[in-house]
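Need residues for this backbone.
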């Protein structure tokens, strides 16, 4: 019989949120996979637990850890996976270990608990029936631009994570693509003494001095907003080209303004622009 891979939620601030089942799983596991052995070590010390073994599991080491985890499970031992805080596998390591454990026939089970995304969502005051978790945005380049465009067009409530040194830029970028009147909720220090949630619009949100990790919850695009058709895209492209923009810049501008993929706008601008327009691709 194989062991069980336990995905164990840990507190996101208040240590009182650890569950008895989580404590039991951490105590009985032959191996605890964690992002930071010092941070998890302090949690275990607080719980009065002496772990049998700790292994670093982060974006750089998770793949290399698979063989060790599979060997433990195959030997009938239980393995616990934790993140620095909250539920592992959500914008944190764990996904690859889960896939490997399933492929070997091991049992995979979650011990639920704190999750910053859910806590911020349910206290945001925004619709919760349908939502999408985006995690951290790409930091730069076309991948970030494309993701922002997708968010602007999304009808469901969107949940994002962001670091303190990037929060101001991200809120500014979101206001640009989504429109300043889009409702937003920004939470930080959840479950801690200085827990704070600010609710406003993207153009008016003020977060003060950035500190702590942030969860951003954004209202989805209204269903009754004017639908974007191919004709409306072509019309916007004609206006952008007439103002003197190049095909590439016109596509970028219309993509941002209408909340459509940049590739779609660029394909149409190639058809819309005069055939004798020369531009380096």
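Answer:
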């Amino acid at each position: 019989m194989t062991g069980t891979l336990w995905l164990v939620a840990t507190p996101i601030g208040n240590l009182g949120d650890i569950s008895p089942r989580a404590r039991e799983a951490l105590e009985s596991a032959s191996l605890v996979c964690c992002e930071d052995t010092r941070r998890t070590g302090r949690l275990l010390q607080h719980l009065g637990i002496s772990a049998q073994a700790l292994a670093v599991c982060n974006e750089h080491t998770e793949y290399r850890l698979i063989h060790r985890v599979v060997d433990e499970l195959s030997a009938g031992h239980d393995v616990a996976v934790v993140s620095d805080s909250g539920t592992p596998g959500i914008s944190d390591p764990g996904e690859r270990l889960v896939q490997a454990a399933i492929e070997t026939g091991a049992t995979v089970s979650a011990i639920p608990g704190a999750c910053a995304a859910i806590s911020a969502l349910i206290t945001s005051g925004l619709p919760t029936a349908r939502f999408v978790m985006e995690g951290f945005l790409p930091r730069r380049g076309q991948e970030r631009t494309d993701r922002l465009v997708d968010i602007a067009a999304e009808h469901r409530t969107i949940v994002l994570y962001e670091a303190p040194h990037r929060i101001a830029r991200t809120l500014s970028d979101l206001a640009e693509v989504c429109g300043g009147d889009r409702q937003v909720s920004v939470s930080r220090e959840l479950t801690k003494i200085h827990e704070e949630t600010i609710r406003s619009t993207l153009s008016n949100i003020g977060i003060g001095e950035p500190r702590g990790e942030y969860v951003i919850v954004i209202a989805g695009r209204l269903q009754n907003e004017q639908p974007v058709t191919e004709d409306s895209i072509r019309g916007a492209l004609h206006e952008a080209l007439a103002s003197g923009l190049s095909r590439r810049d016109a596509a970028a501008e219309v993509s941002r303004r209408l909340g459509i993929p940049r590739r779609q706008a660029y394909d149409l601008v190639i058809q819309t622009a005069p055939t004798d327009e020369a531009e380096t691709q």
